[in-house]
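Encode chain A's predicted structure.
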Amino acid sequence: MPTFITTGRLTQDAVKGLAAKPEDRSEAVGKLIAAAGGKLLHYYVTTGDTDFLLISEAPGADVAVAACMAAAASGAVSDVRTVQAWSSAEFKAVAAKAGRSSRPTGRPARAERRSGLAVTGPPGRPQPRDRRPSRLWKSGMAMADSLAKGRLPPARPVSPPVRNRSPVRR
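Encoded structure for chain A:
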């Protein structure tokens, strides 16, 4: 079954209830997830941006989301986020599927775009990309050169501030 990691925050009422009557909530959380069709693997109380983290198994994302919605509807939790998790071995199979899919033709890979090389010729012979500077880049470089030589660009005239000319007096 797929594994899901859920994080969230306790509401102020839930914190007041736990402070008044401290208890281990893992059984209640496990029952809630089981009622939706999943299984609780681990339940942790955390510090930081979230108050709890739970790891569960469910037949699908719909079951995990249903359990989260039930918990949020109770009013005890907020900011609930659920993500699917894969073991390293499971993700190896996902990555293998990605390796079999191909990019659209003519679009170089990210590393090739960053290096300035795009594979446009025969395999194994990368060719340099067109690196002509843009007009904006040229004008910026011209401004930098004139500033370096001590020449300042011409000053723009400053218009006087516009005053409020409404007929209503204050």
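Residues 135-148 form the longest helix (14 residues).
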